[in-house]
Amino acid sequence: MTITYTPTNPVWCSGCGHYGVKGALERAFDVLGIQPCETMLLTGIGCSGSIQNNVNAYGYHSMHGRVLPTATGASIANPDLTVIAAGGDGDGYAIGAGHLVHAFKRNANVLYILMNNAVYGLTKGQDSPTSGSFGQAIADAPIDGIAMGLSIPGTTFLARGFIRQADQLNSLMVQALEHVRAKKGFAFLEVLSPCVTYHDTYPDWNARFYDLDADREYTAEDRGAAFVKTLALNEEGKIPTGMIYHEDRPCFGADWLENDSSPAQLSAHDPHNHRDELQELMGRYLM
Ligand SMILES: Cc1ncc(C[n+]2csc(CCOP(=O)(O)OP(=O)(O)O)c2C)c(N)n1
Predict the structure, then answer these.
(1) Which atom of ligand 1 is nearest to the CA of 44?
(2) Is the per-residue pLDDT at 257 higher than 70?
């Protein structure tokens, strides 16, 4: 039987930054020769989350804020998959913030693309945890996901792209996918992806982004220096983009992957080994 899959057209508004994220991801698949059959894209809920409908890969639309534990599970269950999680700033920095902290700490082999538009787009324009970053007169201070990641010793890949800086974004996407393909763990790529309908941050972000890749004095291999630089730029009202920090460390579960006993350990959790219990359990809820 031949299975054909035709991705549908995105439902995003004309001018939405999320088109740029989708384009960069698909271009990176091409550059690295990554096939749909070896790739899984999981998302949260939001305009950002709907990227899952439109990229040719295995997909799973998770609950709002819950994409990271779901993606971690997929990556552990099938280490051969290239697992990508995606969602918005509401998804990752508000309801899912606790999961993000633990994903940073755990270093499971997942690429997480956080599409930051500084607004709740799908629910039509409420303030998000990053809304303050455009200088609105609101009481909350904005969350900086990169600074948060730098403060957690387990992080191995922290980068920020801007869809107006397409070459840099394409390069960061390739580097992030290479990180997970090499089983180095959690790659966090925040993308500044403006929402032209409810909160057009293009002018503000155009004026404030600071390309760290172009700063010859900067090295992305020193966590302390990265932290100092990020906070100093934030103080000046700048938003650092580029490769901000990376480190080589084995991913969560790397010892299982290298250890011959790993298939036995994993098969103990194989649902097929528990078919009867599973059916009995499902029966209880399907009455
Ligand atoms: C548990 C739960 N709480 C709240 C919602 C409502 N909700 C759906 S999307 C969303 C926020 C979307 O904003 P963001 O994650 O930033 O993504 P965007 O739409 O801006 O891309 C909210 C609050 C929900 N679907 N589920």
Answers:
(1) 15
(2) no
